[in-house]
Amino acid sequence: MIENYQGTNYLLQSVRTGQLFPDKGWTLEAPDENEPTLIRAVYEKKQLDLGENAHGFYQFANWLPIRRTLQGSAAPISYKSEKLAKAFGLTNLYITFSGYWPEKGANMKTCSFKETEAYSVLGRMPENFNKVLVVASAGNTARSFAKVCSDNNIPLLLFVPEDNLDALWFDTPINENVKLVSSAKGSDYFDAIHLSNIACELDKYVAEGGAKNVARRDGMGTTTLSAVTAIGQIPDYYFQGVGSGTGAIAAWEANIRLLEDGRFGHTKMKLMVSQNSPFQPLYDAWQIDSRQLLPLDDDKAREQVEQILAKVLSNRKPPYSIYGGLYDALKDSKGEILLVDNQAALEAAKLFEEMEGIDIHIAASVAVASLKQAVLDGKIEKDALILLNITGGGEAKFKLEHKDLYALKPCLSFPINPNPEEVKAKLQELF
C-alpha cells in the first residue's frame, strides 16, 4: 500500500556552486553546470521533528525528499555498547544497527541498511511515474529494492553480477513486476553498472541514480539521525566499511544538517571509513591525497574483487572525486581511510557476535575490525564518543527463523563486454 505524503518541503542545491533549484521529479544533476557535482536537498524544516516509531523508517520523513510513504519499512536502531566497548577499552561506544534483531527493535527483513535507500528513493517517485526503475547492485541493494518494489507493485529492473546472486534471497516470492538480469561469472559490480547504463538508453527505463540521487543519500543518512537522536549529541568519530562511500557522504551531510539544527552540539564527526584489502582504490588515492582515483586495470580490479570477502565493498567507480563526494567529506571531517584484510574481518565478525549477541555481515565486520585497529594504533581516545555503523546483520538469525526462503533468478544473462545493441534488443522485451 502506497500513501501520499505532503509533509516535506525542500529545494535542491548544487554543492559546487550553491545554486538552488526545484526538484522536477527525478532531478539527479544541477542544471546548466558543466563540472560534475552532487546535489543536496535543502529542507525547509531546519530542526528534525522525529515521528512515531510506528512510522518505521518514515519517522525521519521531514528530512527525506519524498512524495509518498510505502508499507513495510523499519528504522535503524541505536544503542550504547557495553561488552564490545569493554573488549576495546572504550567508554562511549554507540552502535547503529540496520538489520534483523527483533529483540532490539530492529526489523529490516532484508537485514541491510540498503532498505533505507529503497524506502527513500521509491518514496521520492512521483505518483504518475511511468518509467521502469533501473538499479545495479553488488547484492544487498538489489535485495532491498526487489523486496520493497515487489511489496508495493513498483516496476524494477535489477542488474547483479552472477557471482553475487546468492544475495538475492527473500522470505516471500518476488512478484513479476521485478526483473533480474545478471552479468557473467567473473564479472563485478562495475560490469553490472555497465549493463544498467545500456538499459537506460532505452526510453522505458530510468536510472535510479546511485549517489547522485538525494533520496538515496538522505535515506542512508537516517543511520546518523538514529544515533544522534538516541545519544542526544553528535559523535566524535564515525566508523563504516565502504565500497562507494555513499553511506559516509550521507553521514557527513546528516551531520551538517544536525549542526544547523543546533540542539545536538557543534561536533563534526571524523569519518573513519574502511576498505577490504586488496581491493582498495579509495585507500590508494587517499594515501597520496589525490582527488582523482588512480588508474586501475579492469582485469586486475576483477581479480582483487574475487579475493575479498566483502563483495559489496567493491565499487570501481565510486563518488570520490565529484564535488560533494567522499574526498570532500573526508577533507571536511578530517577523516581517514583504513584497510582491513579478510582474516581481520572474520575475527571481528566472530567477536561482535560473541560480545553483542547478533551475527553481522562481513562488510559491517570490516568496520568493526577497523575500529579495533584504530584503538590499537592510538588513533582515537578511549573516552571519545564513537558511532559504529553496523550496516547489515541478523541474516543468520533471520534464516534460522524463516526456513522457507525464495531466490530471485535472472531472466537474462550477458557476458563481460557485451554487444550493446544485442543487450538493448533483449531488454526492450522485458516490460
| Uncertain stretches of 5 or more adjacent residues | none
Measured by DSSP, the beta-strand proportion falls in 15-25%
- CATH topology of one domain: the name is Rossmann fold
Shape estimate: globular
Helix content: 25-40%
Quantity of strands, as a count = 20
What's the CATH architecture of one domain?
3-Layer(aba) Sandwich
What distance lies between the first and last C-alpha atoms, to the nearest angstrom? 22 Å
CATH class of one domain: Alpha Beta
- Give the count of helical stretches: 14
Spatially, the strands of the biggest sheet line up as 6-7-18-15-16-17
The structural class is alpha/beta
Mean pLDDT: 95
Tell me the Rg in angstroms: 20 Å
Largest sheet: 6 strands, mixed
Polypeptide structure, described:
The chain has 431 residues and is an alpha/beta fold. The protein has a domain of 218 residues: Rossmann fold (3-Layer(aba) Sandwich), CATH 3.40.50.1100. It contains 14 helices and 20 strands. The chain has a six-stranded mixed beta sheet, sandwiched between helices. The radius of gyration is 20 Å and the shape is globular. The model has no long low-confidence stretch (mean pLDDT 95).
Could you name the key traits of this structure?
431 residues, alpha/beta, Rossmann fold, six-stranded mixed β-sheet, five-stranded parallel β-sheet, 14 helices, 20 strands, 33% helix, globular
Fold blueprint:
Elements: E1 2-4, E2 10-14, E3 20-21, E4 39-43, E5 68-70, E6 77-80, H1 83-88, E7 93-97, E8 100-101, E9 106-107, H2 114-124, E10 132-136, H3 140-152, E11 156-161, E12 169-170, E13 178-183, H4 189-199, E14 205-207, H5 214-220, H6 222-231, E15 237-241, H7 246-261, E16 270-276, H8 281-287, H9 298-307, H10 326-333, E17 336-340, H11 342-356, H12 362-376, E18 386-390, H13 395-401, E19 406-407, E20 412-414, H14 420-427
Parallel strand pairs: 7-18, 10-11, 10-14, 11-13, 13-20, 15-16, 15-18, 16-17
Antiparallel strand pairs: 1-5, 2-3, 2-4, 6-7, 8-9, 12-19
